[in-house]
Amino acid sequence: MGRPDDLVRAVEATLFAAEAPMTAEAIAEHLGGADVRGALAELAEHYAARGVQLVERGKRWHFQTAPDMAHLLRREREDVRRLSRAATEVLAIVAYHEPVSRAEIESIRGVQTAKGTLDVLMEAGWVRVAGRREVPGRPVIYATTPEFLAHFGLATRKDLPGIDELRAAGLLDPVEDALEAAMDAAGQADGNAA
Question: pTM for the complete prediction?
Fold first, then answer.
């Protein structure tokens, strides 16, 4: 490539025409092995305050509408499909504990998980089969997908909220919080008695 900005323009054109988000490695391979990381950073900075933004989700780059402009593009009412409580619980377990088997999900939830629950999450494109655990019986293990990260606006799973953030948002069961506080108090009392 001739001028330095030719690489930036080539990366921009590649991502604009891509049918799906691309990894930096795939972009580099498409452009003959060029080092594209600097060009991606420059483009992300260039588009940061614009109507479209270049974002990285799950190590894949793509253009998306700026969040404050999304309302301008909605022409029809979205058909909201709510997840059942079981599906929400399973999705959270997979996201926080991946890769995880069905038996591990059931152990964490304390109840049996219907096969249809995982099917719903796989149909939504948020959970995928990640292989098999190398233990007797070789159970299937599940993990989240780049589509999960993109849908929830996460760059990586490290961006998932922690327990303090969930508690502050009121998303944790108050009964569980009270039980945890009582157990902590009992543990401290035992420690003082010893």
Answer: 0.55
